[in-house]
Write a structure and sequence with these properties.
Rossmann fold; SIR2/SIRT2 'Small Domain'; binds zinc ion; binds 2'-O-acetyl adenosine-5-diphosphoribose; 9 strands; six-stranded parallel beta sheet; three-stranded antiparallel beta sheet; 2 domains
């Protein structure tokens, strides 16, 4: 199933970077954004996940995010998330860059992680930037900051907003330094995350894609693993464990 070329790279690699998207959480029951069961087919992203929507109608905005939070409440990491926790043991310099805000990598136990788009279970004050970890789940009342009284919002990157500069630089550095780069379960259409696989390839990395479908990365990949991440990643972890112990 895996080529000898990939296995040789993984046996010798010390620096590995992984980028994940909504596809890795699909098998946990979290809807992806695009594709046939995409989240945004029922909810227009342009209307809801933007800073303009929050300013115009915070009530509707918060209803949408409460719904998303509730949907995540009973969701658990899957074997794909757990396999990536093992990657921390296999590679000395390892970084997991995720676009997901669902907290599942952290729940699984990943510690070397950058949440590029934030985390939906955290709130952030719109005025003083105070972070609340026990996120509110408001159905009617819009939450306000305990410190300054201003409105709070989920600590996620909305459309029209910039990413956290420090986190983005960390991700770009890891992409440009790594020997092997994995792009897993992402459609590769949202920038700047979508440029990370190309950045790694331009700097000599071996590019591996795990996805059920074709993406803009597919033709540039050195290895294309077509199928569900929750199945492929545990198999890959088992093989790495074996070849590294030889
Ligand atoms: P998308 O919904 O755009 O893409 C999901 C990808 O996962 C698709 O390429 C699917 O083919 C693939 N996929 C689905 N199930 C899979 C499985 N079981 N195993 C492997 N692959 C699978 O999600 P993202 O690329 O993550 O931004 O979207 C990027 C960003 O767009 C999100 O972070 C979000 C959204 O707007 C923000 O929240 C700022
Ligand atoms: Zn505040």
């Amino acid at each position: 199933m895996f080529t000898n070329k990939l296995l040789a790279r993984l046996r010798d690699a010390t620096t590995v970077t992984v980028l994940t998207g909504a596809g890795i959480s699909a098998e946990s029951g979290v809807p992806t954004f695009r594709g046939k069961d995409g989240l945004w087919q029922n909810h227009k992203v342009e209307e809801l996940a933007t800073i303009a929507a929050f300013q115009k109608n915070p009530q509707l905005f918060w209803q949408f995010y409460s719904w998303r939070r509730k949907a995540l409440r009973d969701v658990k990491p899957n074997l794909g998330h757990y396999a990536l926790v093992d990657f921390e043991r296999y590679f000395k310099d390892y970084l997991l860059v995720t676009q997901n805000v669902d907290n599942l990598h952290i729940l699984a136990g990943s510690t070397k992680i950058v949440e590029l788009h934030g985390n939906i279970l955290r709130d952030r004050c719109t005025k003083c930037n105070a972070i609340t970890v026990t996120a509110a789940d408001p159905d009617s009342q819009i939450p306000t900051c305990k410190k300054c009284g201003a409105l709070v919002r989920p600590d996620v990157v909305l459309f029209g907003e910039n990413l956290n500069e420090i986190l983005l630089r960390k991700a770009q550095h890891a992409a440009s330094e790594c020997e092997v780069f994995f792009s897993i379960g992402t459609s590769g259409v949202v920038e700047p995350a979508a440029s990370l696989p190309f950045l790694s390839k331009a700097n000599g990395a071996f590019l591996v894609e795990i996805n059920e479908e074709e993406t803009p990365f597919s033709v540039h990949s050195n290895e294309m693993l077509r199928g569900p991440a929750g199945k492929i990643l545990p198999q890959l972890a088992m093989v790495i464990e074996k070849i590294q112990s030889r």
